[in-house]
């Protein structure tokens, strides 16, 4: 006799519950009791603990996996034999690149985050590590790379800042500023509800950061308390930018969203449109999530609470009913003003177009955040011990699949899902489909707005679900039955598919033919023929832009059309198929196409080679997994024939770059290039080809000398940039470079004020066309020291001091090293750098004094990093008239807090600015 819903379960009954050996009626009673009983949760057998190494760790209560019905379904899939990782084990690596690993800060699905210190700079930082085994799993490196590029591009005080990235001993790593504090999810877990002013200030600062994200055309998609970090100086930083995408469907491209504990764990903060159709996510979706987060921080519970279980929560968020409206905040927290409660409700309005923008949210929340004291809030959270009450485990994605669960248990599957019921395959066409993938099977939650159902599908193999699904679809089309005939795919052999590939014009059919040819040629002598036939199509369809394929060969629409252009669809299919040809015969076939293909083919081939050389390919599904580029080229360079192979490839890359150069010149002579024109594609491809060649030389070792064209390209780019610099528009009053504030998109019909508007004034100057990328800038300095390029010191100094120069260190280069190198070229370099920095300060001061609009101080935040990394001392030591420089900088610094997007960073910029002012003051007094 099973215990009633009010009686505690024995250990034997708990075991039967976890093993699925209860009837539906017994399951109803037992699961409801365990869901509400802390005592029973604390006595759950060890087999449950084995499913989660973080079962005893601090955890938010915002995970839907904390519901027993969902847990039990996943638990049955995971089984009791999953090994428990040793979270106390030594760190797997003690040195990565120039960084010493000091300790672990946290761990999650993406790997671990460690505290580190730069060997030379002795500065602490945080490093996110993607383990080598994750690189070989679908989607993980894509998301990691996307997070690297996104964090690097979103320069804002309210967003965690990236400073470096790289690969070391198979580990991919992202270096970020070290944030000393606690994520808001942990704070809320420890304190329950937060003071209204503090909660509003956290949301206000978050809204400011989100406004910057949205203004760059991106969407965060995962706003929740644990993705907000409160630092010790009271700053809120936006974290976890790996989901930031523009116009994409993350369910189709991001494996993280379909792994245990991610999509489901974020459900309480998701907007209705994000649940109903992830392709409809928009900036307003982030505002809904921020509103739900603010509701949670003030009230101590989510708008749609966990009382009715997973099904009720999904239905409440997505359906039009009384239960879809959360209780008013004032009914849960009496101190909440009616106006604030109404505004939070507006942030969570069911219709996206009825929600306020991020800038309006930041402005309105300032009304209620005046009494906030976030520093005190953090101290209170740190002094409050984490609850000792058992926390229901969050299930991680197992990395070592266990054996399949035994099938002799009574009601093994129906008991687990008894309360929620089974459903037919046709239900997958319903409005909402959420899948949780595990190593043992697939849990699917489906709702049509009126009803919600959950089903479990068990795998028959211990391989990961994503790999199984992909292989089963493809392998089922291969016919090995008749050994007297060729192997066929969908009824056709390799010859037939090659013929289809050469004659087919419909892009979806071309994609199928590419996949068939690649699979049928594996392990055969016709592999190179298959690769060449695939790449030959780039002569007609090649482009730089890619539309990623989704399931069943379809594509997602982006921008303002329902489907991408044909050439971009082709490139999506090409990238999915061609990656399996690397390194042999893929590299050699690309080399031939680079040397002899047309413009389209060269551009597309450079893109494919970049994916291999820069380690952007994932060949997990291929039985002939490609070696990394680093191992491939290092191995090749050890033998004479291998060195000839590499040298030939480098010359072919150079030949392609030269061919694209003539295309750029012809196009530029007849029209003005725009961001997506063929000439601009060719420009991007040439720059990428140069970077690829440099990487190949580095990975090949000292046996390979750089071909002459690599240096020639640097000289060419420097000469062009210097020529543009010398022809730049100069302000007749000051004799200095005239900054351009016009909206650069207005000429293409996308003005800041909307479509079709004319040029509008920005408050930050646009990047001039003579600014060099950092890699070329550093290469130019080295070649200037060798006397191989003309690199005027005036040009070099103004570039380094321009607010829009995108500086980041390369190969441990610091700004001090750069300044020293420029000084060795010309002793006037520090004075020129100081002069142009002062010019920037004068321009900001002039614009601000004339308008009293603090937005004109934006460039100061762009310069702050370079000043902190070495240019501050150059400025204070070499600027003319230090007394005037002091007064001017003091006015700017004192006015910085008026800037709408200004927040103090964890490195205490106030102290930094005061140190600069003090140095200027001392110098002025001594002169």
TrEMBL record:
Residues engaged in binding ATP: 128
Please tell me the species this chain comes from. Answer: Rhodopirellula islandica
Lineage, uppermost ranks: Bacteria, Pseudomonadati, Planctomycetota, Planctomycetia, Pirellulales
**Per its UniProt record, what InterPro entries does this chain match?**
Kinase-like_dom_sf, Prot_kinase_dom, Protein_kinase_ATP_BS, Ser/Thr_kinase_AS
UniProt-recorded name of the protein = Serine/threonine protein kinase
Every Protein kinase domain range: 99-369
Q: Establish whether keyword Protein biosynthesis is in the entry.
A: no
Q: Which stretch is the leader sequence?
A: none
- Keyword entries, A-Z: ATP-binding, Kinase, Nucleotide-binding, Serine/threonine-protein kinase, Transferase
Instruction: Report the coiled-coil segments.
Output: none
Task: Report the GO molecular function annotations.
Answer: ATP binding; protein serine/threonine kinase activity
| E.C. code | 2.7.11.1
- Respond yes or no to whether keyword Chloroplast is given for this record: no
Query: Please, which domain of life does this record's source organism belong to?
Result: Bacteria
The cross-references to Pfam families, in alphabetical order and at most eight, read: Pkinase
Among Gene3D superfamilies, the record links this protein to: Phosphorylase Kinase, domain 1 (3.30.200.20), Transferase(Phosphotransferase) domain 1 (1.10.510.10)
